[in-house]
Write a structure and sequence with these properties.
170 residues, three-stranded antiparallel sheet, two-stranded antiparallel ribbon, elongated
């Protein structure tokens, strides 16, 4: 558990920690959130403080309390921010949570617009071969991307579940 800081209320620090776990995908819809008693013990705070942190999460719509059972992550789709995705990737080494995948429908190369080539000094760079072998000598044709060209992805989407008719990216 992170250490309690004096800069913001304890209950908010606990709520933000759990919120980050939900947004990163560490806690998935339907997963049980630690109980008030567990939070109080883990964070060395009183039970009312732990209860207030769970209440803050309920107000944000991230969790729901089930009488006699506990508090669970809500099943609604949560739009995770880039910061949470990056944090999870840095922590786990994986971009997607289990069950998520990306489908790249098409990809290709296209010449970089002048302002991009100029900003990245692509136009001045000599052609080089990076993949073993040498580029073809036919004018306008190359086996390898030319300086001044950039990758383009015409269509990409994120989804969760199991992809149909394809293998999961790992």
């Amino acid at each position: 558990m992170p250490k309690i800081e004096e800069t913001q209320p304890k209950y908010l620090q606990i709520a933000h920690h759990i919120r980050d776990q939900i947004l990163r995908g560490d806690l998935r819809p339907g997963d049980e959130v630690p109980s008030e008693r567990q939070l109080a013990a883990d964070w060395s705070v009183s039970r009312p403080t732990a209860a207030r942190s769970l209440e803050a999460l309920r107000h944000q719509g991230l969790v729901e309390k089930r009488q006699g059972s506990g508090t669970y992550v809500r099943g609604q789709a949560v739009n995770r921010r880039a910061r949470e995705l990056y944090g999870r990737a840095k922590q786990t080494g994986k971009i997607y949570t289990p069950g998520e995948y990306a489908v790249i429908a098409s990809a290709g190369w296209l010449e970089a617009p002048d302002y991009v080539a100029e900003s990245l000094n692509l136009a001045a760079a000599p052609a080089r071969c990076t993949g073993g072998g040498s580029p073809r000598t036919t004018p306008g044709r190359s086996r390898f991307p030319l300086p001044g060209s950039v990758p383009t992805w015409a269509s990409a989407r994120r989804s969760s579940g199991t992809p149909t008719g394809s293998r999961r990216a790992r």
